């Protein structure tokens, strides 16, 4: 938007702190190549448009804003004479996209000294060559450093996840190995018992009866009810007494196995009624091997199923076999991340899921959202751990208008008010040296805001800190060729788009 052209006075612009050290000749050149413009209340330039001018305010009031999702969020407002904004990176030329990174408007008639972007780039290189080189190095160096440390952040997270996954896989794998070894022993004893039966003088009808009872026992094992510890103990005593009364040796050892399989004295009475008295101890021993074999196979099945679920969770977390951008159920992403981090969360932290399952799926980059969940959960675990007390991590989802809320709430000590405004700054961390890079929240902010057009905010008080992610429910699928990389794009919150100090 163009303003009303006005005379340019070298003396006036020389009174602005940005130009106060320039020579009369330099001030004359600025007035010759630039201009003074007066803008009435309204917009001056718009975010995303080509950055064609560098603005220095002479008098008035300016407001800077950025688009966050569908909202225009104010990021700066000042009446400080000499503040500047606009094409501040023109001296970098074609090395970076030359577009306005925010929108500027004035709330009262305001005068600016306006310098074309090319003229600003020329005078920077001619008058301040060392400063231009230093700024260029600072810009690209910081971006490169941020990218490298961002990669390290992901590698550290991957290492932590791998350790947790290994721990989680070890338990069911070890259980399956133990059950397999025991099963081999039991099958061997069952073969021995079968050989003993086949060599005995058992009537064919009795053997057929045993086989039928065995089949019915297997069906009973599959339907075994869950008993409380007290109920199980009482039933074990009852079964042990029955077995002892019927001459079955080592009834105290057999009873817990039968109770686990869902057998009771009524069932044993039915067996006793169908088996001759002299065959009963052998029949009970045979059924014991049958029950143990079934229980061991169930244990192996449970263990291998657990391993399969863990592998599925790892695939869900990494999204290696999925499209980069798709419509997803956010609860699947949250569950896979919590499972992957379960080893790090540990037993001292209780995880509470308050999911609203009625919320619709959202268009998203699922692998990158998992990175956000990882960062926020990791911070919550660290916060709770710093209290040396047990704590609770609550993960909540809900619908808020046309957006999906994902909230992570922890019972840690809270974020002090004096640093709350800095937690999203790159490289800012409260963790000890070597434990944090200070990029977790910065990367999360980029992923949520820049890539998903959502918002990430925090509310904190001692014992109640909440990080809230809001994602659009119906965002159009972005073009991956034009989407910024959250590891390499400058941080919108820290770009010096409105400065009150000289560059």
| Element pattern in H and E | EHHEEEEEEEEHHHHHHHEHHEEHEEHEE
Task: Outline the biggest β-sheet.
Answer: 5 strands, antiparallel
Secondary-structure content class: alpha+beta
Instruction: Please compute the radius of gyration using only Cα atoms.
Output: 36 Å
Helix content: 40-55%
Low-confidence segments: 433-438, 476-503
Strand content: 15-25%
Count of individual helical segments: 13
Question: Could you walk me through the main structural features you see in this protein, from its secondary elements to its overall organization?
Answer:
The chain is 48% helix and 19% strand. It is α+β, with helices and mostly antiparallel strands. A 5-stranded antiparallel beta sheet has the order 1-2-9-4-7. A hairpin with a 2-residue loop joins β15 (455-461) and β16. α3 (117-127) crosses α4 (129-199) and α5 (204-222) runs parallel beside α9.
Q: Secondary structure elements and their pairing?
A:
Blueprint: E1 4-6, H1 10-14, H2 24-33, E2 35-39, E3 42-45, E4 53-59, E5 62-68, E6 71-78, E7 84-86, E8 103-106, E9 110-116, H3 117-127, H4 129-199, H5 204-222, H6 229-245, H7 251-260, H8 265-274, H9 280-318, E10 326-328, H10 330-340, H11 342-345, E11 349-354, E12 362-364, H12 366-385, E13 391-400, E14 403-410, H13 440-451, E15 455-461, E16 464-472
Parallel strand pairs: 11-13
Antiparallel strand pairs: 1-2, 2-9, 3-8, 4-7, 4-9, 5-6, 5-8, 10-12, 13-14, 14-16, 15-16
Helix pairs in contact: 3-4, 4-9, 5-9, 6-7, 7-9, 9-10, 10-12, 12-13
